[in-house]
Write a structure and sequence with these properties.
3 domains; Beta-lactamase; Jelly Rolls; five-stranded antiparallel sheet; 19% strand; 22 strands; Transcription Regulator spoIIAA
């Protein structure tokens, strides 16, 4: 069984929603681009941690066109540094068309590297002994971004070269102002080639994610751009990447982006995700109509706007462990405990932290869905979560529904301070809310509930109704039949009502209790909301005083109607004088039990280190 991610489901819904959009026209000023099928449409999201989600025509090849500009600009920064690069190309937005033949009147520089004049000047800064060597460096760099070997589309390159007279004019203008220092022909030709590199929509998503991941490809781990220059690339993308639509784009979408006239749009949310969209129909600005629509919807529905970010800082998953690694405080008998150790591997606990948004919740969903085939219960501890926005709420709701449909349960703990989660779940789940939205105030109660579900077919799952005999008591199991006959007359039966306090903290310890029927819980001296342990039939409690004689250190309450056998301290002392072997066996068993509890506590504490 493999479950699709709610994120994949969301992208498919969004894709279906935007597919009927047929506005715009395929670019025709480069003849080869006019041959594109206007119905091609792909969407890819890649995270900075390496997850990739895609839908539609994501493997359809097209040429990168102007989306090449930020990557070449980054290479120029690496080759020349900021000062030299800024001397040749500015970083100011312009209201001129992307192919405008104009320079800044004060400096003679192209205004920014995202318009053609700036991109040609940038291409002139790429180091290499020959034009072929310079293009080879560009192609290798693009391939590092994409995580696969890319190639030149010769047909589109020839078409661009044959019709690129305006760009050649820009090249000569740059040479006239010494922004190109040699014959502009090879540099303009290099620009034609960089625009004619063939990519697909998945490539765009991964290339964007590489920028989001500070220049390191999240799938391959290879560095495509030195981290200190990523901010410069994203800055000009944010202010200039969408031409004279850049201001409106930043206002509405709020994600640094770059478009290309072949129909690609690439957007980068720093530190988090990259988005690639491909749809050839363009608007009057030269941007993909569907690409704009998709990015607007993603930004709005997933709350991705750059200026509406909650601090992330750390991984959302602070800690995770299975129910076999960390049990509830319900202490169980040897047989039940052994059975539970095998079954409890089906429980997984996630301690989450920080702010839950679309991007920070995605790794949680991915991990849960990867493990879902082999698990039954997922406990999401939200104690250290500061906030949760609607996009995270939508994802968690989808996770709950998807797992419930596959007979798996998501349980939320410590979520009282996040009322939005409950409101959204109630609204979306409707009549199923009470059935599948599971919450507990803490992990202990959630773990116990899961354990009980796993043990429901065993007799000990109904401990409140099961009655142990003296031969079942753990501390007496080492005794022979004749030794049991000696101690049984010393056991005094007692009954307690549900809720009754059996032991009170601070009282003098005069007896040890053997639990015959029902369940009891141990609580701190001044707090009866945080339990330390729950005991089932067959176990002893109040036994610590038999070792040190100190006053009671905790309160013990009856969870149900309880029947106990009491062994008085005076009788135990007398037993030691008359039958020392019996006392030694009981004390040895008691020490072994305490040692087991200490080892378990040490093992569980190590999970938090």
């Amino acid at each position: 069984m493999k479950l699709t991610s709610p994120i994949q489901d969301f992208l498919e819904e969004l894709y279906t929603q935007c597919k009927p959009e047929t506005g715009g026209q395929v670019a025709t000023y480069i003849p080869e681009l006019a041959k594109a099928d206007p119905n091609w449409f792909g969407l890819c999201i890649a995270t900075a941690s390496g997850a990739v989600y895609e839908v539609g025509d994501t493997r359809q090849e097209f040429t990168i066109q102007s989306i090449s500009k930020p990557f070449v600009y980054g290479l120029a920064l690496e080759d020349n540094g900021r000062d030299t690069t800024l001397d040749r190309v500015g970083v100011e937005p312009t209201g001129d068309a992307f192919n405008s033949i104009s320079l800044d009147p004060g400096t003679g520089r192209p205004r920014n590297p995202m318009i053609n004049a700036g991109a040609i000047a940038t291409a002139g800064l790429i180091a290499g002994k020959s034009p072929a060597a310079r293009f080879r460096r560009i192609l290798e760099t693009f391939s590092l971004y994409a995580g696969r070997e890319l190639a030149l589309d010769e047909t589109v390159y020839r078409s661009e070269s044959e019709t690129g007279h305006r760009n050649r004019a820009i090249g000569h203008m740059l040479r006239n102002f010494d922004k190109l220092t040699s014959d502009p022909g090879p540099t303009t030709d290099l620009y034609f080639k960089q625009c004619s590199i063939s990519v697909n929509c998945r490539d765009l998503g991964i290339m964007a994610a590489t920028l989001a991941n500070r220049g390191v490809n999240p799938l391959t781990g290879k560095q495509a751009l030195r981290g200190e220059y990523v901010e410069s690339v994203l800055s000009v993308m944010g202010t200039c990447g969408m031409y004279d639509y850049a201001g409106e784009w930043l206002y509405n979408v709020g994600i640094p982006a770059k478009s290309g006239v072949a129909g690609g749009v690439m957007a980068v949310l720093p530190g988090q995700i990259g988005i690639g969209v491909f749809s050839p129909r363009l608007d009057a600005h030269g941007n993909s109509v569907r690409g704009i629509r998709i990015c607007e919807e993603l930004s709005r529905k997933l709350e991705l706007h750059l200026f509406n970010r909650a601090a992330t800082g750390k991984s959302t998953i602070r800690l995770q462990f299975s129910g076999a690694d960390f049990n509830s405080c319900h202490v169980r008998g040897a047989a039940e405990g052994q059975e539970l150790r095998a079954l409890a591997k089906a429980i997984q606990v996630y301690q989450l932290q920080g702010h839950l948004t679309f991007v920070t919740t995605e790794p949680v969903l991915r991990d849960v869905l990867e493990q879902a085939p082999g698990l039954r219960y997922f406990i999401l501890d939200l104690k250290r979560v500061f906030s949760l926005n609607e996009s995270a709420g939508h994802l968690l709701n989808s996770l709950v529904e998807k797992l419930a449909a596959n007979r798996r349960t998501v349980i939320f703990t410590h979520c009282q301070h996040l009322p939005l989660l409950r409101r959204m779940m109630k609204k979306k789940l409707g009549a199923r809310f009470e059935q599948i939205f599971a919450t507990f105030p803490d992990n202990d109660l959630a773990l116990e509930w899961c354990e009980e579900q796993l043990l429901e077919n065993t007799r000990h799952a109904h401990a409140a109704h099961y009655k142990s005999k003296p031969t079942d008591y753990e501390l007496l199991q080492a005794l022979s039949e004749s030794e049991l006959k000696i101690i049984q007359p010393l056991l005094q039966p007692r009954k307690f009502k549900a809720g009754q306090k059996i032991i009170r903290a601070g009282d003098e310890a005069r007896e040890m209790f053997f639990l015959a029927r029902g369940m009891v819980s141990v609580y701190l001296r001044d707090e009866e909301t945080h339990r330390l342990a729950t005991f089932s039939p067959g176990m002893a409690f109040g036994e610590m005083a038999f070792l040190d004689g100190a006053p009671r250190s905790a309160n013990i309450l009856a969870d149900t109607e309880v029947e106990c056998d009491l062994l008085a301290m005076d009788d135990f002392t007398a037993l030691g004088k008359q039958h020392p072997a019996i006392k030694i066996k009981i004390l040895e068993k008691l020490c072994l039990n305490l040692t087991g509890k200490l080892r378990k506590a040490n093992r569980e504490l190590s999970l938090f280190q």
